[in-house]
Amino acid sequence: MTSEKIENRLIVALDFDTAEKAVDLVEKLDGLVSFFKVGMELQLAEGMQPVNYLISKGKNVFLDLKYFDVPQTVERAVRRAASLGVSFLTIHGNRKNVEAAVRGRGSADLKLLAVTVLTSLDAYDIRDLGFPCSVEELVLQRAKAAAEEGCDGVVASGQEAKKIREAVGQKLLIVTPGIRPEGFPKQDQKRAVTPREAILAGADYLVVGRPITSNPDPWQAAELVLDEMRQGYEAAPRSN
């Protein structure tokens, strides 16, 4: 794994309420980070403007809208997202939803990522939602279903990444949010891991928001995350 490839595997979350703030961060990270996540907050505030801006600048876009609806609606929404030229798109990971999304994606060069269990949830939250199983069991169930239905990857905590790798091998990309570098508070992330831990567990891409976006020097903060990622790759070399 070269340094260039490691840098391409860091996704910075543009969790802002204006395009101006998002553009400012993208410009500050230009030359270091090329992959950015656009989520619900920014999309609701600015529509598709941030996505179009990022694509016009040659950046990769992770559109994180977690589509979940009746199959026909999901299929049409994914078809529309695919036409935008984004790289990654999140959907919820039950079978019918994944099947519809795969149909909507068609032959487009879009990676569909099934959400397993949000990193802000723990065992208590899972029980509160009515699931009579552990977080790990639910994550693995959804990951296996996603692989069987033709999904490209999953969004999963670094705490479950190793088990997913053992269950499905290299069939799925693992995109891991809830990343907290050494010494950074976990905040609302209940299943957070460090960049090094996530890479060692088998994650392919890391999504990092506040540890970078809230830092007065986001370039330096991103460099620190990349350094911890390199430590993980050096401790567990891989061929991909």
Mind explaining what this structure looks like?
With 240 residues, the chain is an alpha/beta fold. The chain has a single domain (3-235), classed as TIM Barrel, CATH 3.20.20. The chain is built from twelve helices and eight strands. The chain has helices at residues 3-8, 19-28, 40-46, 49-56, 71-84, 95-105, 123-128, 135-148, 158-168, 195-201, 210-213, 218-235, and strands at 10-13, 35-39, 60-67, 88-92, 111-115, 153-155, 173-176, 205-208. Strands 1-2-3-4-5-6-7-8 form an eight-stranded parallel barrel, surrounded by seven helices. Strand 6 (153-155), helix 9 (158-168) and strand 7 form a beta-alpha-beta unit. Helix 2 runs parallel beside helix 4 (49-56) and helix 9 (158-168) packs parallel to helix 10 (195-201). The protein is globular, with a radius of gyration of 17 Å. The termini are close together.
Gist?
This protein is α/β, with parallel strands linked by helices and about 240 residues long.
Features:
single chain, 240 residues, alpha/beta, TIM Barrel, 12 helices, 8 strands, globular
Tell me the layout of helices and strands.
Blueprint lengths: L2 H6 L1 E4 L5 H10 L6 E5 H7 L2 H8 L3 E8 L3 H14 L3 E5 L2 H11 L5 E5 L7 H6 L6 H14 L4 E3 L2 H11 L4 E4 L18 H7 L3 E4 L1 H4 L4 H18 L5
Parallel strand pairs: 1-2, 1-8, 2-3, 3-4, 4-5, 5-6, 6-7, 7-8
Helix pairs in contact: 2-4, 5-6, 8-9, 9-10, 10-12
